[in-house]
Amino acid sequence: MDRLTVLSIRQGQFVYDGERGLPLAWTWTLERPGGAPVLTHTVRLDRIPGGRQALADLRRLPQRIRELRARNPGDLDGIEDELQRAGEWLAGEGLGGLTKELADVGEVAMRLPPELAEFEALPWELALVRGESETLESSGVPLALHRTTLVRGVRASPRGRTGAVAGRRLRVLALFSLAEGTLPLDLTAHRDALRAAVLAGTAGREVAAHVRTLQFGVGPTALGETVGEDGDWDVVHIVCHGLPGGLLLERDQTGLSKHALGEGEGTRLDGDSTSFLGAGEIGRLLAAARGRLKLLCLTACWSGGEDPARSTGRPLTSLAAALADELDCAVVAMRFPVGNDFAVRFDAALYQGLLGKGWPLPAALRYALRTAADDPDLPERALPLLSACTPVLFGTDAPYLTLTHEHSMIGPFDAPGLSMAGPLPDPPESFVAREQEMSAARAATSPSGASRGTVLHGAAGLGSTSCAAVLAHRHQEISPVLWHPRPEWAPPVHDGGTAAGRPPAHPHSVDGFLAHLAHRLPACEDTLDAAREEGWPAPVEAAVGCLAGRPDLLLVLDGADRLLRQDPRWRPLIDALAGTADTPRILLTSRTELPGIAPSLLRVPLGPLPPARLLPLLTAAAPRLRTLLDGDDELAWCAYDIAAGNPGLLVEADRAAIRRQDLRNWVRIHSDD
């Protein structure tokens, strides 16, 4: 403990009010490294005017902020004023003279008796240190914006575990869940930013990171199964909506057969479409990772705090605190609600600090907080006090934890048969809708699923190819994907048709597919070329034979309706592949349902997006049109009405909105249609 500052209240040094659930008097002990003298400070509420009420108000602070948000969502000053009063009391009375001593000391382990767990959870990092600041007025800067990080739940002597993955590959599991009926989140942008930060942070290392992400259909069963698959995880990161004391996950697709949650748990909300999981349920689902798991990140609202209104007379225990104890790992959580963009920025910066800079977890958290809170594009910049006391850190090993790489004999991760994977189209920059459809399609194309695949179908502009691209990129993290026809940016496959005395195969024809397959499976090249010479049905037999034993592969046929118009032989080929048990899963995109073709494939229709899902899409993919709509521009609203929930048409209108006349022409042309 000689390198760590410890702030503690020892047994026998507090007087507890059992009725209120808070102490009436206590003595802080501050032990600093380097032989600095031990400092103490005693607080007696009976000698502080209004002291008991002030402490009770602190306990109710989360509930108070919820009330202020509900009453007037735009009243940022009201929230900051509430926090200002709390920060002044924490500094002047709650910590007293220790406040300045705690500023800029790095990580501070809070060690309090179990009876004071609720007291420990109060927002002590909000205590205001007087002085000049560029970001806040001279009334004070909270400890969290100094070089100070309070770490809660440091109960026993730490084991000194400083290398999370010494001699092993860093394994990161990130899960993204958006329950039906909740506010839309751009989970795809979050996933891409987080994945990029982890991979960039481990680039050039002896042992690269293996990042596994799961999105769409992430309910309780998927959470438990993914955590338990394929070995343990060093880091588990869960992004979803939260409520005080638990997380909101998507409704299970397959029930809870493999991971029973116990009687009365795993409750459903919003018409049986949402699963609310408390600490006990989540702990059981994550139990398979216990032992190797070093860090659990919960960037859900309220995961680091609990609302007194939901306590029903029991002591307040946050979800994060309970999981830190249950799983014996460090936990990063959020005490209050945060916006999606703030969470994206915070998470990416956290992994930049942990992996790219090699900092210990508390330093990485400070860096992430400042990076997100100082971003001028984020609304949280207008709430510096709320942002400062929102991220919370728990766990006995959290003050020391680093995610380091050392030399290892283990090679970089290589998915089975990854060499067969071909180029994929770029996924959309933003993907904020289609959760139900994507969940169904992901389950149907999963290597472990019972289905043979799916047909994603919808009118032009509704995004079947975009949905397929997102699914393909997710699938490629665990097993290879073969996308046909190849994306426009990819060089064509030359099949040597002219040299063999036949014209080159058109990529939309079955012959073009066989040439593409031969390019990816060189061992089958002679078999596939011979099948083309022998004529029908030899190509079907050859393709099925070459793909036999590859149920892990995902075969995507983009624009299957157009392929069938180009070459009718596609029909028996698709039927044969869909009807064979050990061939790849199949994902078809189409503007029609493809009636009568491969009836074993699940049909997933794509319809127009409802208004609640269009607004975040407009922000991400049609910003010019969104700005005009916000200004109540009549021409823009005409374009919006014409699009009628069609994402492709909205993007078209946004491109036309660069010039007023172009938007007017677009509206006229589509009105005529």
Structural notes for this entry:
- By secondary structure, the chain is an alpha/beta fold.
- 37% of the residues lie in helices and 16% in strands.
- Strands 1, 2, 3, 4, 5, 8, 9, 10, 11, 16, 17 and 18 form a twelve-stranded mixed β-sheet that branches. Strands 20-21-22-19-23 form a five-stranded parallel β-sheet.
- Mean pLDDT is 84; it is low at 133-137, 254-271 and 406-419.
Give the helices and strands, then pairings.
Layout: E1 5-8, E2 14-17, E3 22-31, E4 39-44, H1 51-59, H2 61-71, H3 76-94, H4 98-102, E5 106-111, H5 117-120, E6 128-129, E7 141-142, E8 148-152, E9 171-176, H6 187-202, E10 210-215, H7 220-228, E11 235-239, E12 241-243, E13 246-250, E14 267-269, E15 274-278, H8 279-285, E16 295-298, H9 319-327, E17 330-334, H10 340-356, H11 361-373, H12 384-388, E18 391-394, H13 435-445, E19 453-457, H14 464-475, E20 481-484, H15 510-520, H16 525-534, H17 538-547, E21 554-557, H18 560-566, H19 570-578, E22 585-590, E23 602-605, H20 611-621, H21 623-630, H22 634-643, H23 647-656, H24 660-672
Parallel strand pairs: 1-5, 5-8, 8-18, 9-10, 9-11, 11-16, 16-17, 19-22, 19-23, 20-21, 21-22
Antiparallel strand pairs: 1-3, 2-3, 3-4, 6-7, 12-13, 13-15, 14-15, 17-18
Helix pairs in contact: 1-3, 2-3, 6-10, 8-9, 10-11, 15-16, 16-17, 17-19, 20-21, 20-23, 21-22, 21-23, 22-23, 22-24, 23-24
